[in-house]
From TrEMBL:
Compartments (UniProt record): Cell membrane; Endomembrane system
Functional summary from the UniProt entry: Mediates both low-affinity uptake and efflux of sugar across the membrane.
Name listed for the protein in its UniProt record: Bidirectional sugar transporter SWEET
Record membrane topology: Multi-pass membrane protein
Family classification: Belongs to the SWEET sugar transporter family.
Keyword hit for Cytoplasm: no
Source organism of the structure: Gossypium raimondii (Peruvian cotton)
Record keywords, A-Z: Membrane, Repeat, Sugar transport, Transmembrane, Transmembrane helix, Transport
Bilayer-crossing regions: 6-28, 40-58, 70-93, 105-125, 131-153, 165-186, 192-211
GO molecular function: sugar transmembrane transporter activity
Domain of life, per lineage: Eukaryota
GO term, biological process aspect, one: protein homooligomerization
PANTHER family referenced in this protein's UniProt entry, alphabetically: BIDIRECTIONAL SUGAR TRANSPORTER SWEET3, RAG1-ACTIVATING PROTEIN 1
GO CC aspect terms: endomembrane system; plasma membrane
């Protein structure tokens, strides 16, 4: 019963995490359409790649015992594919300076991951010490990944508007943290549970802010609410511009 419950929680955690990892698809569809990265930053996707690499390695039988953490492998494996796709698109359309910065940072992440994998495989000779080593480094990567939304949280507090903090992203972030925290506890694995002790309070904070400011901040362009980079650029929605033009023409 315990193993079945843990597996069920892991599957639900996979679903909620997949929605989070796939959210930037709209952003990069826009990049491809405009053939420009504009002011977008690639750093959040590189940090997410680091997190996915480390936890995929953590879940493999080299570090974990046999396939005890198979759900961790599946979602982070998908995360690697998605994040690499986003980074590749960014490198393709970014200006030279952006390519150098993103390329250098990605290379550093790959080097750190490679060194971590080599040390865990050849220096430590039992699963416990390998899990502690890789899990500790993964915790640092997770904290860095969860820290990224703090910029948006600050913006919401300053503007008293949730226009730049889509509800569904906040909700799925909260849900993923709850599910993976439960999965870690059911697995008696604090190294899997502990990163979500950071993500869970942040998710609660985001939902609380949304409930507080949702009536004050009206999202002007519904189709783009999942496009975080578009929101961060604070572009004026096209239908507002059209309304202004019509109003001006009417007065003339």
């Amino acid at each position: 019963m315990g193993d079945r419950l843990r597996l069920a929680v892991g599957i639900m955690g996979n679903a909620s995490s997949l929605l989070l990892y796939a959210a930037p698809i709209l952003t990069f569809t826009r990049v491809i359409r405009k053939r420009s990265t504009e002011e977008f930053s690639c750093i959040p996707y590189i940090v997410a790649l680091s997190n996915c690499l480390l936890y995929t390695w953590y879940g493999l039988p080299v570090v974990s015992y046999k396939w005890e953490n198979f759900p961790v492998i599946t979602i982070n494996g998908l995360g690697i594919i998605l994040e690499l796709s986003f980074i590749f698109i960014y490198l393709w359309f970014a200006p030279t300076r952006g390519k150098i910065k993103a390329g250098t940072t990605t290379t550093m992440v790959m080097v750190i991951f490679t060194v971590t994998a080599i040390i865990s495989a050849f220096v430590f000779h039992d699963h416990h010490h390998r899990k502690v080593f890789v899990g500790t480094i993964g915790l640092v990567a997770s904290v860095a990944m969860y820290a990224a939304p703090l910029v948006v949280v600050k913006q919401v507090i300053m503007t008293k508007s949730v226009e730049f903090m889509p509800f569904y992203l906040s909700f799925f972030s909260f849900l993923a943290s709850v599910l993976w925290l439960a999965y870690g506890l059911l697995s008696h694995d604090l190294l899997l549970a502990s990163p979500n002790l950071v993500g869970l309070p942040l998710g609660i904070l985001q939902l609380g802010l949304y409930c507080k400011y949702r009536k004050r901040g009206i999202i002007e362009e519904e189709p783009s609410k999942w496009d975080l980079e578009h929101n961060n650029l604070q572009e004026k929605p096209k239908h507002i511009q059209l309304s202004m033009n019509e109003d001006i023409n009417g007065k003339i």
